[in-house]
Hints:
Elements: E1 4-14, E2 19-25, E3 36-43, E4 46-53, E5 62-68, H1 74-80, E6 87-91, E7 108-114, H2 118-125, E8 136-143, H3 152-161, E9 165-171, E10 180-182, H4 185-190, H5 193-198, E11 207-213, H6 215-229, E12 242-246
Parallel strand pairs: 7-8, 7-11, 8-9, 9-10, 11-12
Antiparallel strand pairs: 1-2, 1-6, 2-5, 3-4, 3-6
Amino acid sequence: MTKWINATVIRVQKWTPNLFKLFLHAPITPFLSGQFTKIATTYKQKYIQRAYSFVNSYKNKNLEFCVTLIQHGIMSHQLYNLLNHKKILIDKNPNGFFTIQEIPDCEILWMFATGTAIGPFCSILQNGSKLNRFKKIILVHAVKYKKDLIYSSLIKKIKKYLNHLIFTTIISREYNNQNSLTGRIPQLLHSQTLEKKIGYTINPQTSHIMLCGNPNMVKETQQYLINFRSLKKHLRRKPGHISVEHYW
């Protein structure tokens, strides 16, 4: 059951016309990196709520969320226009199982994200020594435009102390972007273009996959990995190779 408490707005950081970061402070129950919570605002005397994943480390008392400004989205516009020190509602208790604690031991941990779904991976990658049980961690972030890669600087900082992390980007609607592939995750896996660039191959012997973001990407990628790479969906009651989080 949702237990609403007050959260104080620290700031709203506007990165692009469609993307912004929301920073809050609230006495929530400690969360695990990769989890999400619910945020609520009021509209016409009714509560509207959405789920958002934590971007910040579990050690950071300031809560960070990455939000897409939806053209006709009531709540995203309300969050976008919040003033510092404003009070909004947040669920006291975090939720979700898309955490590193739920991932079985493997040599290579693959993380695939689209758009703002990079958020939970940013939180997970700030876990430090808890990630040393993996030989390699490969983070793939797919966006529409180069300007949407708003966490690349954070990932570069993380790479300085997480030296077994490989980070690659995919841009779908712009061409000739240096160091980024062009296209979509499922197609780049099917053609093996992505793996050739990274230098590692996905297989059931060494790999575990985390998929987060656009439901079409999650569905298509998961189906491809099951049908053509002999991977299985990971469940608590039935361990496998693919963990998923749908982002809407």
